[in-house]
Design goal:
There is one protein chain. By secondary structure, this protein is an all-beta fold. The chain has 2 domains: 177 residues, no CATH class; 168 residues, no CATH class. 1% of the residues lie in helices and 51% in strands. The chain is built from 1 helix and 28 strands. The protein has a 4-stranded antiparallel sheet with strand order 2-1-5-28, with no helix packed on it. Strands 6-27-26-25 form a 4-stranded antiparallel sheet, with no helix packed on it. A 4-stranded antiparallel sheet has the order 13-14-15-16, with no helix packed on it. A hairpin with a 5-residue loop joins β1 and β2. The two termini are 21 Å apart.
Length: 375
């Protein structure tokens, strides 16, 4: 039996050896209703076993823990995934396809964290404008781009060692293709006669074009581009060329997903200069407990990711409280600034940033010491 601290919150209680080693977590972030209420406090039971289920050795053990109040956890921002804006947004984790849907819509198909597929579509038809079908069909034949209009067949002009890997018919009978060249991939447009018009070139560090979907209502094209650590969807349209005739492009729309399996990989893109550094352990002065003669108690803790979310843990291993309920996390990291305590969490496709407004709203309590002997 023990008296809980005089503060609202959840209780974490463990059994410790004389040298401070945690051997059993009896309760983790438990409300007081999880305990039996006695005349002089709350009652809990220990069966003499450790966290592995083994019977503890004979000796003196101490029961103690922490009550965690409202830490004022506030969401600050999401990073690295333009599809996610807030906690209510469906977690979209990968772009699967960019494709035409009929004559007037472009669809982007994405996979959600729960495994379902979601589609985002754009209606491209112009009100009051009738679409004129040029009657041209584009197809791929062993790397060749074949353009057919009625009985007329044209093969798009390509150099030795080049091959088309994707094609989409666009405005005015123009064919847009992703072409594999010895120097890498690029996007090109061809006339219905198969004549080369313009290109969108890529450098070696750019995301590589994988899929293309062209609009029949304007010269805009939609691209799925990716690297091992990034995916993006872009809508582009040809713009006025440079004085030397080099084609230029206007980005109409762009959304990206950056894949980061560690905080170290995510840190450079979190909008801070220099990038934030993770803190292995944080020490705070907890609220004094009047039941312990208001003794000043320091608490050292760190953060970890588990199946339920980001978990605050005491340095001795006692779980304190889940700060989020985000499933599917790969990592969590604490960052201690001069005037604030921040943590980041990542599931591989988005990074969440949160601020802990009252990290010291925690109070220590004691539940006695016990002489244990094996039965």
């Amino acid at each position: 039996m023990f008296l809980p601290p005089p503060m609202e919150g959840t209780l974490s209680l463990g059994i410790f050896t004389k040298d401070g080693k945690l051997i059993r977590t009896l309760h983790a972030e438990a409300p007081d209703k999880d305990f039996t209420k006695g005349l002089n406090g709350l009652i809990t039971r220990w069966d003499g076993r450790d966290n592995a289920g083994q019977v503890a050795a004979d000796g003196t053990y101490f029961a103690r823990g922490w009550l965690v109040g409202d830490l004022k956890v506030e969401g600050v921002a999401f990073h690295g995934n333009d599809w996610i804006k807030d906690d209510e947004t469906l977690r979209l984790t990968r772009i699967l396809a960019v494709q035409n849907n009929g004559s007037d819509e472009i669809d982007v198909v994405l996979r959600a964290l729960d495994g379902t597929e979601q589609t985002v579509g754009w209606k491209l038809a112009k009100p009051g404008v009738k679409l004129v079908d040029p009657g041209i069909v584009a197809a791929l034949d062993d790397g060749k781009l074949v353009l057919r209009k009625g009985n007329t067949i044209n093969i798009a002009a390509m150099a030795e060692g080049e091959r088309a890997v994707a094609v989409s018919m666009g405005f005015g009978g123009r064919a847009w293709a992703i072409v594999e060249t010895p120097a890498g991939r690029e996007v090109r447009s061809y006339t219905e006669a198969g004549e080369f018009e313009r290109r969108l070139a890529y450098t070696k560090d750019d995301p590589v074009p994988k899929q293309i979907a062209a609009s029949l209502w304007s010269e805009s094209i939609f691209l799925l581009e990716e690297t091992p650590t990034e995916q993006r969807v872009r809508a582009l349209a040809p713009s006025n060329p440079k004085p030397d005739g080099t084609p230029t492009w206007k980005v109409i729309y762009q959304k990206r997903i950056a894949f980061t399996d560690t905080f170290a990989a995510a840190a450079p893109a979190l909008g801070r200069t220099p990038p934030p550094q993770a803190t292995a352990e944080v020490s705070i002065r907890s609220k004094p407990n009047p039941l312990l003669q208001n003794a000043k108690t320091d608490l050292k803790f760190h953060i970890t990711a588990d199946p339920k979310g980001s978990l605050l843990m005491a340095s001795d291993g006692l779980p304190l409280v889940h700060l989020t309920d985000t499933t599917g996390l790969k990592w969590s990291a604490l960052v201690q600034d001069k005037d604030a305590l921040t943590f980041f969490e990542g599931d591989g496709s988005v990074v969440g940033e949160f601020k802990i407004g009252k990290p010291s709203n925690i109070m220590a309590f004691e539940a006695g010491d016990y002489e244990w002997k094996k039965p």
